[in-house]
Amino acid sequence: MRFRGIYSELSSTHIPKTQILAWSPLLLPRKLCPRPAFLWFHCGMQIDTRKCVACGNCISVCPMGAIAIDPGVNRARVNSDECVECYTCFRGMSMERLNPTFVRTIRGFLKLFRLRFDPEPDVCPTSAIIPDELAWPRVVRRAFSDPLVTHESTGVHGRGTEEVKTNDVTRRVGIGEVGYVVEFGRPTVGVRFRDIEKMTRALAGIGIEFEPKNPVTHLMSDVKTGKLRDDILNEKILSAIVEFKTRIENVPAVLSKVDEVAKTLPTVVALGVSTRCAEDGASALEPVLAEEGFSFVRGKTNLGLGRGASGA
Predict the structure, then answer these.
(1) What gap in Å lies between CA 179 and CA 195, rounded to an integer?
(2) Distance CA 297, CA 307 (A)
(3) Cβ pair 5, 152 in contact under 8 A
(4) Where do the domains of the chain lie?
(5) What is the DSSP-derived secondary structure letter of residue 7?
(6) Of 17, 56, 69, 275, whose CB has the highest number of CB atoms within 10 Å?
(7) What distance in Å separates the CA atoms of residue 236 and residue 194, rounded to the nearest whole number?
(8) Do residues 106 and 112 touch, judged by C-beta distance below 8 A?
(9) How is residue 29 annotated by DSSP?
(10) pLDDT digits over 56-91, tens only?
(11) What's the CATH number of domain 34-132, 3.30.70, 1.20.1250, 2.40.50, 3.30.160?
(12) In this predicted model, what pLDDT tens digit does every residue of 125-158 receive, in sequence order?
């Protein structure tokens, strides 16, 4: 059995090749997460408590609010449950290598005079942020949250899909069809796969077919029912996109179902729809959206400058 989709690309570009065993479903139960005692308890982004000087600069950098100062030890900690492994803290801060004891001593001395010594806000003065090995299923967090990671299933960075931006070439959406993108999560909010599954199962229940060239589809254990793999349901990511298409007459049922389920989810849900325009630029989709009570704008228009396969 081999993992299809987004994961093996990580081994060649971001994680040492020795880590590849961690993604084998046969070997994974034997793969533990060893770590020195001075690191926090989870597999994922770490803060070295020997180096951390509690300057707090990393707190504002984290898009998920997953870093905080632990008052018990006066060190920064990463909340492993909320961290989506986006690597923003690691890449977004300049890593200086000042001696931690020296920094703490200076700050303590200045504190006596009610003065503060703080580094620049985009600097970790002691290089205390340490990326850790990611094992399955936590590796999916980085795949959907780090924009520099390529999804192997689609060859696209970030959330792993070009949506219908290249429809003049791909011809995903044809005449009389409507393409949908249901987007979950945003920075500071994120989304768990169990909430995405609530939507995919509800949509599958009204007979839609999911786009095969989409990373979320590759994580489904049953595409017909929209069931996602059980072992990823609790994983939290920055955002994800589910894609599918229907005939234009099915639009009201889809809009109603998305609206119904979105109201029950503890995250942000955005819906995008697209269709092929007539030669004069008219869209058969617009009157349907207006009749259903949805306000909309033409956010993107594909000018058809690409060249699709002949006869498409």
Answers:
(1) 22
(2) 26
(3) yes
(4) 34-132, 155-291
(5) S
(6) 275
(7) 9
(8) no
(9) G
(10) 999 999 999 999 999 999 999 999 999 999 999 999
(11) 3.30.70
(12) 999 999 988 889 999 999 999 998 888 777 787 7
